[in-house]
Write a structure and sequence with these properties.
Layout: H1 3-8, E1 12-13, E2 22-33, E3 38-48, E4 56-59, E5 64-70, E6 73-74, E7 80-82, E8 86-89, E9 95-104, E10 114-118, E11 123-127, E12 148-156, E13 161-164, E14 167-174, E15 178-184, E16 196-199, E17 201-209, E18 215-223, H2 231-248, E19 256-262, E20 269-270, E21 275-279, H3 292-307, E22 316-317, H4 323-341, H5 344-364, E23 375-376, H6 385-402, H7 404-418, E24 422-423, H8 425-436, H9 445-448, E25 454-462, E26 467-475, E27 490-497, E28 507-508, E29 511-512, E30 517-521, E31 525-530, E32 538-541, E33 550-552, H10 557-566, H11 570-594, H12 602-614, H13 623-630, H14 635-640, H15 647-664, H16 666-680, H17 687-703, H18 710-720, H19 725-735, H20 741-754, H21 758-769, H22 776-785, H23 794-805, H24 808-811, H25 817-832, H26 834-845, H27 852-866, H28 872-882
Parallel strand pairs: 2-12, 18-19, 19-21, 22-24, 25-33
Antiparallel strand pairs: 1-23, 2-3, 3-9, 4-8, 5-6, 5-9, 7-8, 10-11, 11-16, 12-15, 13-16, 14-15, 17-18, 20-21, 25-26, 26-31, 27-30, 27-32, 28-29
Helix pairs in contact: 2-3, 3-4, 4-5, 4-6, 5-6, 6-7, 7-8, 10-11, 11-15, 13-17, 16-17, 17-19, 18-19, 20-21, 21-23, 23-26, 25-26, 25-27, 26-28, 27-28
This protein binds zinc ion.
Zinc ion binds next to α4.
Length: 885
């Protein structure tokens, strides 16, 4: 590593935060789009903030400065200085007008940050969070500088729609087949919320009347010919608007709400004021191209961006260390929304599974950081599962501790006290203290301590005194730069079950607490004594996953099976099943390690028998939930339980177990499949049908492990192709793992049918990248060269390379070829799009978790990367992952 690169990759620290020296009250922006370039005229009203310094320092990168005028006078070259990243204007007054003209090249912008041309959609668009605006013009590009934006766009008429934030105030014709539109946003905002779009779209329109009778025009812009794929997004938007009024009293504030779907987009979606820009993946859906999961994700992401209008836009972040202030809060809001709209149990299971498979490993690895980080080199690297998902869990705990009513009071106060301001996480927590009267000093540790806390629980029942005691011990492992941790506030929602599975009344300090209670842990060691416990209970702990921790209680296998059947908390029923399966799977991996014969545990099979032969036949059964109950823990999550991740043994154990379950229950699976299949062939986004579809497809996935049911998969595939993607995709995923001509036939038919639909081609790539047949890597490499793959399109990279990085046996194959391939891709990608390259390098950074031979191979690739010229995005992740512990 040369000295030069050390200088280029300097960290930024929270402790160095200073309020801006200057503020911008108004910006008049005019963007003239031409074929090869864009001219950007920016007119700023600037005034000194408290600390008066005489140099104004603006951010700007990759800009060609054409001219700069202060109060109408053009500045000479000795009155300002331009560096790679800054424009410094010397000796400015306390209040003045600054006019800057810059030239940029959107079609050369492959990083997709700032203003760029989206090739797939043939559209100009922007992405400014976190620091994209400085690629458009010189500006105070910090979230604590809030200005009123007026934006004029001019372009050729081949781009009929010219959009920006706020309300349209003027538009008209110009010479040379050009036209213009002017937009005014009445709300002050930081520049990361600025957006601009110019393109030719189909438009679907609707209206929404808010609870105070304000009419809002709703518009969704999609690529020509795709309007029929935007109806679910529109419906989702209305559901989100209604839910936020009902749940948080939040109403929309402009006359118009626009969503534009773009095919080349780094993120999922962006909450720009009044003009959300979305990845097509989270807008477009119709039965023949989108699965149940796609429909659910669209509901969730549309909700998420809409909720940002208050949690993020009206009240924004002071600096990027506070990112979780808006993201943790908004994820919490979108999770609550989909739980309310769809299913409390299943959505919670999905969210916890994602947390455990992405955030827990992050928290245990070299890139562990608190929900509010202290330092970063590249802020784009901190859009993490910790900031987002653990941040959401922290708010969920706060709501549990305060109670829903008090928490809502706090939210109301937060929005009214800080409306129009850029604030901190501390401001938020302070409000929750104000409304609850609680001291949250210890709770704040959730924002500053990294690592996943572990809670060990033991118990003691005394039948003489009829008392039942729970002993809790909490610890939190060391993480980079944080060797020692303090005990945290941990809410444990719990209940006790008697031998017949009935909930027992909970009496603490001689006071009746009902049938469910939330214990609050605050000490390293703590005990709780329940009175009047007439019989030895079975504890049900951490219900609905009330804290983002790893909890361990020494359940016997029988107790886990008992709770799996009887617990009143649906999440905990699922959790006990997962724990039971996990034990068995870990034992199987050990048997493989020792070379012993593999055998299925009878109790485990009994669980499946109970689910399939009893519960599935009950009139009130929730089939959506049942399909979750049938799933085994993922290879990823099994690996997380091991000190050294035994990639091959985990895979073999899981394949063995699934096959044994399939063999044992083939007839029952088939009956359930048949019973639910005919109802669900015609697609509708409806909870009952989703449940039936998910359940029948879980059955089919097991059946397809058996050679004589491969044809059944093929039959479903052919029948569903062109009209039901949920059914098509499950069948194709099953066929994809078969060493059979059916595999090639199905993959070919799928591609021929959908080759012109970008999002479906992504599925085709991802499915093949998830294949674990022996020649999978060479097929993935071939797909990398296939015309359907485009390294400049983020969705294609996520589909092929992202799925490959999550395919344990292929990525971690012993000869190291998977590592070599990924490193080569990252190096190529980093030249084009550093943000996406940084996301792809992640699987390599986990190298310490593997055996010595794999460690050496992965480390070699990381070190080789470090010796090339890297973006600060990739440099930060690679260098941190190599740091000595
Ligand atoms: Zn967000």
């Amino acid at each position: 590593m040369s000295d030069m690169s050390t200088i280029a990759h300097q960290p930024i620290y929270l402790k160095n935060y200073r309020a801006p020296h200057y503020l911008i009250d108004d910006i008049n922006l005019s963007v003239d789009l031409f074929d090869d370039f864009a001219m950007v005229r920016s007119s700023l009203r600037v005034r000194a903030n408290k600390h008066h310094e005489t140099d104004l320092i603006l951010n700007g990168e990759g800009l060609e400065l054409i001219s700069i005028h202060l109060e109408g006078r053009e500045l000479t070259s000795n009155e300002y200085e331009v560096t790679d990243q800054l424009l410094i204007v010397r000796h400015v007054p306390a209040n003045f007008q600054l006019d800057i003209v810059t030239k940029i090249y959107p079609k050369k912008n492959t990083a997709l940050s700032g203003l760029y041309y989206a090739n797939t959609s043939g559209t100009y668009c922007t992405q400014c969070e976190a620091e994209g605006f400085r690629h458009i013009t010189y500006y105070l590009d910090h979230p604590d500088v809030l200005a009123k934006f007026t934006t004029t766009i001019t372009a050729d008429k081949k781009y009929p729609h010219l959009l920006s934030n706020g309300n349209l105030t003027a538009s008209g014709e110009l010479p040379n087949n050009r036209h213009f539109a002017t937009w005014e946003d009445p709300f002050k905002k930081p520049c990361y919320l600025f957006a601009l779009v110019a393109g030719d779209f189909d438009l679907i329109e609707s209206q929404f009347t808010t609870q105070s009778n304000h009419e809002v025009a709703l518009r969704i812009y999609v690529e020509k010919g795709l309007a029929d794929q935007a109806t679910h997004a529109m419906d989702s938007l209305k559901r989100a608007m209604r839910w936020d009024e009902g749940t948080f009293g939040r109403e929309y504030d402009l006359d118009i709400y626009m969503i534009v779907a773009i095919g080349d987009f780094n993120m999922g979606a962006m909450e720009n004021k009044g003009l959300n820009i979305f990845n097509t993946k989270y807008v477009l859906a119709k039965p023949e191209t989108a699965t149940d999961d796609d429909y659910i994700n669209i509901l969730s992401v549309i909700g998420h961006e809409y909720f940002h209008n208050w949690s993020g836009n009206r009240v924004t972040c002071r600096d990027w260390f506070q990112l979780s202030l808006k993201e943790g809060l908004t994820i919490f809001r979108d999770q609550s929304f989909t739980e309310d709209e769809l299913s409390h149990a299943v959505m919670r299971i999905h969210d916890v599974r994602a947390l455990r498979e992405t955030q827990f490993p992050e928290d245990a690895g070299p890139l562990a950081h608190p929900v509010r980080p202290d330092a970063y080199i590249e802020i784009n690297n901190f859009y993490t599962a910790t900031v987002y998902n653990k941040g959401a869990e922290v708010l969920r705990m706060l709501q549990t501790i305060l109670g829903k009513t008090t928490f809502r009071k706090g939210m109301d106060l937060y929005f009214s006290r800080h409306d129009g301001h850029a604030v901190t996480i501390e401001d938020f927590v302070k409000i929750m203290e104000d409304v609850s009267g609680l001291n949250l000093a210890q709770f704040r540790l959730w924002y500053t301590q990294a690592g996943t806390p572990r809670v060990e629980v033991t118990d003691h029942y005394d039948d003489i005194t009829e008392t039942y005691t729970l002993h809790f011990t909490q610890t939190c492992p060391p993480t980079p730069h944080q060797a020692h941790k303090k005990p945290m506030t941990i809410p444990i929602k719990m209940g006790l079950l008697d031998q017949s599975g009935q909930a027992m009344p909970l009496v603490l300090h001689q006071k009746m607490q009902g049938l469910e209670h939330t214990l609050l842990l605050t000490e390293e060691k703590q005990e709780v004594v329940f009175q009047h416990v007439t019989t030895k209970p079975t504890p049900s702990l951490l219900r609905h996953f009330s804290a983002p921790i790893i909890l361990h209680y020494p359940y016997t296998d029988e107790a886990l099976r008992f709770l799996f059947q009887h617990d009143l908390d649906a999440f905990n029923r699922w959790e006990c099943g997962q724990q039971y399966s996990m034990r068995q799977l870990l034992q199987l991996t050990q048997s493989i390690e020792k070379g012993n014969a593999l055998q299925m545990n009878e109790g485990w099979l009994a669980i499946y028998a109970d689910l399939l032969m009893r519960e599935a036949k009950e009139a009130t059964v929730d089939l959506f939930f049942l399909s979750e109950m049938l799933a085994l823990p993922s290879e990823k999550y099994i690996g997380e339980q091991m000190q050294t991740i035994a990639v091959d043994n985990i895979h073999a154990a899981r394949v063995f177990a699934r096959l044994e379950i399939a063999k044992k229950f083939a007839d029952v699976f088939y009956q359930h499949y048949q019973a639910n299949h005919t109802h669900t062939e015609k697609y509708k986004f409806d909870m009952k049908l989703i449940g039936q579809r998910q359940f029948k497809n879980s059955c089919l996935a097991y059946l397809m492990l058996l050679p004589n049911y491969a044809e059944l998969g093929m039959t479903q595939f052919k029948a569903a192709l062109k009209h039901n993607m949920t059914d098509t995709q499950v069948a194709l995923a099953g066929l994809n793992q078969l060493d059979s001509p059916l595999r090639e036939e199905a993959l070919r038919a799928f591609y021929e049918t959908y080759r012109h639909d970008a999002l479906v081609v992504d599925k085709w790539l991802a499915i093949q990248a998830s294949c674990y047949l022996p020649n999978a890597l060479s097929q993935i490499k071939a797909l990398y060269k296939h015309p359907a793959f485009d390294i400049k399109n983020p969705n294609k990279v996520y589909a092929l390379i992202g799925a490959f990085g999550r395919n344990p046996t292929v990525f971690h194959q012993k000869n190291g070829e998977g590592y070599l391939f990924l490193a080569d891709v990252v190096r190529e990608l980093d030249q084009l799009n550093p943000q996406i390259a940084a996301r792809m390098v992640n699987p390599l950074t986990q190298w310490r978790r593997y055996d010595a031979a794999r460690q050496a191979l992965m480390r070699e690739r990381l070190e080789a990367l470090l010796h090339t010229s890297l973006s600060s995005d990739v440099f930060e992740l690679v260098s941190k992952s190599l740091e000595e512990k």
